[in-house]
Write a structure and sequence with these properties.
Layout (H helix, E strand, L loop, with lengths): L1 H24 L1 E14 L18 E11 H9 L4 E4 H5 L4 H26 L11 E2 L18 E5 L7 H9 L6 E8 L2 E8 L9
Antiparallel strand pairs: 1-2, 1-3, 4-5, 5-6, 6-7
């Protein structure tokens, strides 16, 4: 009887250890948001190879986001300045990889906007180079599901190139629903093609 109790205690102890380890390691479909760092922008910016030496500072603040485990979610629930968000609330229908792709896109867009503002203020001339249409999502009923993915850049349709997104949309809208088109796109620096039929959008029936 004592031997059975001893084996039972060891088994329970092992289960507790495994549960504790799993609560620290196994991710759950939730994310934890918390304040990140505050970096002095002057350390990243130079003008004519000189850094700003004036008093005061302009800080770049960040928000930290990490995948939660049972243990970290429990801690974040009681910790100040930490919020628990479901994967759906944070990412919508996107996967982890798609979400990271979108964040990278937003970062590059913000950087380009900042460069544009700086050039405008400095009264410097510049030109925009249209590289294509950035794929931000693929509808479930699209004929390009499994062919395109978030992060691809469409730069051709039926062998034609365009100088703006407006030209791109005008061409697509001029085609017929059900018509087969071949698109050229860039993924990870490599050019590829995919074919599929055009569908009517539920949003504007175009």
């Amino acid at each position: 009887m004592k031997k059975k109790r001893s084996v039972l205690k060891k088994g329970l102890a092992l289960l507790l250890v495994l549960f504790f380890a799993a609560s620290l390691i196994v991710p759950i479909p939730y994310y934890i948001e918390q304040p990140g760092s505050a970096e002095d922008v002057s350390q990243f910016v130079t003008v004519n190879d000189k850094k700003d030496k004036l008093d005061g500072s302009f800080l770049l603040t960040t928000v930290g986001v990490r995948r939660a485990t049972l243990a970290t979610a429990l801690y974040a629930y009681f910790a100040p300045y930490q919020d628990i968000e479901s994967q759906e609330d944070l990412m919508g229908p996107s996967t982890d990889d798609e979400y990271l792709q979108m964040q990278q896109y937003y970062m590059e867009s913000s950087q380009n906007s900042a460069i544009q503002v700086a050039l405008d203020l400095a009264q410097k001339e510049y030109t925009f180079n249209f590289k294509g249409i950035y794929v931000m999502s693929v509808q479930n009923n699209s004929n390009f599901v499994g062919k395109l993915k978030v992060g691809d850049v469409i730069n051709q349709i039926d062998g034609q190139t365009f100088k703006s997104s407006a030209e791109f949309m005008t061409y697509v809208k001029s085609q017929k629903v059900g018509q087969k088109v071949t698109i050229g796109y860039e993924r990870d620096g490599k050019q590829a093609t995919a074919s599929g039929k055009l569908i009517k959008l539920k949003s504007d029936k175009k």
